[in-house]
Amino acid sequence: MRPGNRRSWNCATKAARTPSPSPNSPRKVGVNTAGANLEAALDTWLKGQGLSDDEIKQVQLVVIPPVNAEQALRNGRLDVAALQGILQDHATAAGGIRPLFTDVGAFGPYDGGPYVLRTDFIKKNPETAKIFVSAVARAIEWERTTPPDEVIARFTKIIKARGRNESTDTLKYWKSVGITHGGLISDADYTRWEPWLKQEGYLKHDKVDTSKLYTNEFNPYRDGAPAVTR
To answer: Domains, the chain, ranges and CATH?
Structure first.
């Protein structure tokens, strides 16, 4: 998640509504997955706003597909919805919804939501893993370095070629891929969540052992790798 490209998760709320969770006023917040990045970001932000643990527990997470979150917010089924990228921009452009906070604004730039391959799959299929990671990394770098108009045109062509009767209207809100150079992963992408993981009981020790969580071994943009040609 990088500043300037609006790919950060955003908690949006109706313009006339300012959620103030308290023991007497629980709020419903729409997220795509409970117990993941959004819950950690929301809990950490609420604590930073001065709410107690008991008050934070009054916030009810409602799992909802991102594409349905805006409508649920407008219908009053949610008080707050986590919106990302073009979905956030589409919602705010339509009016009546305003951003409450962004994770980039609250925590600074970071990468999140990496692809995951099973360890046994990687051992059995190292070349396949390498091809997959390399292709994703190259696609990320192409999006990062190509003018937005060209990226949108390519997206539009791909969507139309699929023949699924999909709308391309929201593509005009696309700004950037919002990921670091080649999608390289760093320790900080995990260690920033240590306080929350420990508080929730997910972390048995004081520190996250990042050596067991990720590798850039197959990424062609890692340090020491041969130069990548487009």
So the answer is: 9-107 (3.40.190.10), 119-212 (no CATH)
